[in-house]
Amino acid sequence: MARPTAELILGDDERQALKTWASRPKSTQRLATRARIILACAEGLDNKAVAARLGVCAATVGTWRKRFVTRRLEGLADEPRPGSPRTITDADVERVVTKTLETKPKAATHWSTRGMARAEGLSQSSIGRIWRAFGLKPHRTESFKLSTDPYFVDKVRDVVGLYMSPPERAIVLCVDEKSQVQALDRTQPLLPMTPGAGERPTHDYVRNGTTSLFAALNVATGQVIGQCHRRHRHQEFLKFLKELDAKLVREPGVAIHLVLDNYGTHKTAAVKRWFLRHPEYHLHFTPTSGSWLNLVERFFGEITEKRIRRGAFRSVTALEAAIREYLEHHNAAPKPFVWTADADLILDRVKKVIERTSDSGH
């Protein structure tokens, strides 16, 4: 004879609480499963039927049915686990977090786990656990710079609008230069990667000259038109514009919108005359200190990471050949970078940074 199933009847408040736990995204998976078990049991199903529906074992259903009948909603919480009693109190945790955020150690710029452990009389591992729980990483820094451009808001809306809602019958290009790309060669041969050890170049290097990469990223297709020059002047920029105009495939009457930064070579008299002779080009300038709005910077980061930073180049010619090879490979199967942050989101984040820096006391 099977043991009789404990009768389970829910009140209205209990049913609503269980439904909330079962469907709320922030509920833990364990609590959500337990709530679904009780709701299924309240429908009059036996333990085996509930287990088959929810994909758990019948013993699990029986355990939580019994605990709910005995202790109601409180019975679904985890019971205290066996083991040694807790030695670090909430006050200790609060003190460590506050000290990490609001103070600095003597003669140092940031706390380490060992330094904080000595200061608070705790173990290094305990400090590490507290920092991980609150997402604190004193050893890491992030940089920022606020634009002082008086037309910052208008320029942000203009450039981001081009990315997210480009005009009809138009091509949007992000144009910039990656200047002073160094042709670096290592002083000794590279040690290749082996199982258990990464690739190892020498820490010192030889400089073999520099080049500048002029590039235009097609926002819609991801294709990049690039050209390398040994110097970075308006003469080279004009040569690149002529190359861009010759290579750009477009139908008659299609407008071309260029996103540029405020570098001086983009605004010389000769460059202005070139654009006057080509009225189909429309210029959109990023704010001062706002080059991060230029989407071609994302491509520059990619080519630096994948081809330049870990390369060894015995001459500028070799470096330029590597850049051209990467451009050809990229354009063989281009993939556009998708801009997702709208202007309101960007301006709201900038506003929060301004408020924090204004209230920082500096």
Short description:
With 362 residues, the protein is α/β, with parallel strands linked by helices.
Characteristic terms for this protein:
362 residues; alpha/beta; Nucleotidyltransferase, domain 5; 3 domains; five-stranded mixed β-sheet; 13 helices; 5 strands
Query: Which class of secondary structure composition applies to the elements?
Result: alpha/beta
CATH class of the largest domain: Alpha Beta
Total beta strand runs:
5
Percent of residues in beta strands: 5-15%
> Low-confidence parts lasting 5 or more residues at pLDDT below 50?
none
Radius of gyration: 31 Å
Within CATH, the superfamily of the largest domain carries the name: Ribonuclease H-like superfamily/Ribonuclease H
Number of helices: 13
CATH topology value of the largest domain: Nucleotidyltransferase, domain 5
Element string (H = helix, E = strand)? HHHHHHHHEEEHEHEHHH
Shape: elongated
Largest sheet: 5 strands, mixed
Biggest β-sheet: strands ordered side by side in the sheet:
3-2-1-4-5
Number of domains: 3
Q: What is the mean pLDDT?
A: 89
Structural notes for this entry:
This protein is an alpha/beta fold. The protein folds into three domains: 12-76; 90-133; 159-191 and 201-352, 2-Layer Sandwich (Nucleotidyltransferase, domain 5), CATH 3.30.420. 44% of the residues lie in helices and 13% in strands. The chain contains 13 helices and five strands. The chain has helices spanning 12-23, 29-42, 47-54, 58-71, 90-102, 113-120, 124-133, 152-164, 234-247, 269-277, 296-308, 316-332, 343-358; strands spanning 170-186, 205-218, 224-229, 255-260, 281-285. Strand 2 (205-218) and strand 3 form a beta hairpin. The longest helix is centred in the last third of the chain and has 17 residues, at 316-332. The protein is elongated and about 90 Å long. The mean pLDDT is 89.
